[in-house]
Amino acid sequence: MIKFNKKIIQAPLAGYSCAPFRKIAWQWGQPDFCYTEMLSAKNIYLKVPIKKRYFFRDPVEGPLCVQLAGNEAEILAFAAEKIIEWGADLIDLNCGCPVPKIRKKKYGSKLLADSKHLYKLIRAIKTVVKIPVLIKIRVDGLSRDQFNCEVAKAIEDAEADAVTVHGRHWTEGYEIPVSYQDIAEIKQTISIPVIGNGDVSDTFSAKKMFLQTGCDALMIARASVGQPWIFEQIHQELQGRTFTKPTLVEIGDIFLFHIKELTMLEGESSSLLQARKLAKYYARGQVDNDFLSQVVTIGSYQELQEIVKRFFII
Questions:
Q1: Integer Cα distance of 109 and 95 in angstroms
Q2: Are residues 174 and 96 in the same domain?
Q3: Rounded distance, CA 239 to CA 48, Å?
Q4: Separation between Cα atoms, residue 7 and residue 210, nearest integer Å
Q5: How does pLDDT run across 187-208, given as a tens digit for each residue?
Q6: Which of 70, 219, 220, 222 could lock 197 by a disulfide, CB 3.0 to 4.6 Å apart?
Q7: Which of 34, 95, 97, 215 is catalytic?
Q8: Is 34 an annotated catalytic residue?
Q9: How far is it, in rounded angstroms, from Cα 156 to Cα 192?
């Protein structure tokens, strides 16, 4: 059984959700649990070498949900048992990824087209593990699919412990507003916990998600990049309390710590490449564009330190 404390969860984000990212989210925001990046169950089954970033868990992290992608019951069951050895506290089956190469393998959102098969996959995982099993899905949206209730019931009947609902159809981009109505429909259809996902970026949008869908908890994705305190901020403000955001100096320190941890995990070359894409998130609304143009030219962690100190006044 899943217990929600803050009722706020860190979403899986490809290219971001490795141990350093989760570690910072836990230290500054303490969401109920964080996700790994999506892992191929078949690669685990075939013992394909997996980069450390995809399975390493830092000792100081909070509860961890490992997300699997796959469409074969035996393979998913094997992978589920394996990730227990890695220290997973929860397991999630990805049924929402819209990327063509994932759907071509009949993974991700493609699983929503066959609720009977989805039921079998969930049962295969549930049979071999005792930790909570979650399913992350998308909705009908503006499509003609009409699978909301059928998929939701299959998930509940298979005894999944919770379902996360991203309120967009797999064909819809971020320019399409999240459908609260679809999430609410699923919440009304099943009795297991429903986690609302999509367009939650601050306390106002979090409150809207709770009020319009009746969801039991919510998931924050893109808005948490560069703002690891957002989980605590929303939690405090929903309680009517005042939250004090980190100072500019503290934000600079968090950014440097993030890159330093990535360096220890993957080496300096890789971490500097990631620093270039992370910089815009840590700088949002804080420093000018000169900072971003200078980060692109860095050749060492020391150079990054000097630039951050200059712009974040450390």
A1: 5
A2: yes
A3: 46
A4: 10
A5: 999 999 999 999 999 999 999 9
A6: 219
A7: 97
A8: no
A9: 7
Residues of the chain with pLDDT under 50: none
Residues 194 and 256 occupy one common structural domain = no
Residues 215 and 295 in one domain: no
Domain ranges, residue 256:
248-311
Q: Which tokens go with 263?
A: 């360096």
What does the alpha-carbon distance between residue 169 and residue 167 come to, in Å, rounded to a whole number? Answer: 7
Token pair listed for 146: 């009409």
| Residue 3 belongs to some domain of the structure | no
Q: Is the dihedral of CA 103, 108, 110, 114 positive or negative?
A: positive
pLDDT at 251: 96
When divided into structural domains, the chain yields a total of 2
Whether 2 is covered by a domain: the verdict is no
Question: Using only C-alpha atoms, what is the Rg of the chain?
Answer: 20
- Tell me, what's the pLDDT at 144? 77
β-bridge partners, 92: 67, 134
Distance from C-alpha of 65 to C-alpha of 223, rounded to nearest angstrom: 19
**What pLDDT shows up at residue 314?**
62
Looking at residue 270, what is its pLDDT?
96
Residue 296 has a CB neighbour count (10 Å cut-off) of 9
Q: Where are the alpha helices (DSSP H) in 112-202?
A: 115-128, 148-157, 180-189
Q: CA 233, CA 31: separation in Å to the nearest integer?
A: 11
